[in-house]
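pinging the channel bc i need a second pair of eyes. not urgent but kinda urgent?? the chain im working w is below, pasted from the shared doc
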Amino acid sequence: MESGPAIFTGVVFALFGTGLLVWTATRVRRREPVALGVNPVASATLAALAGVAALVLAAWCLVRVR
């Protein structure tokens, strides 16, 4: 019964993290800014770290499903 919310949360984190990493990689590859008015290296790094953190949270949520 409690695995439903954990699965939903894990999938949401996985989709968000994957989307953020793909979007960041696309912007960096095209040499476009990830965030306007911010250092390009800092914004790409922070966005990539947030994407990885979301994927780690997704894995943690999905591992706890029983």
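so The CA atoms of residues 7 and 62 lie 6 Å apart. and DSSP finds two helices and no strands in the chain. — does that match what u expected or am i reading it wrong
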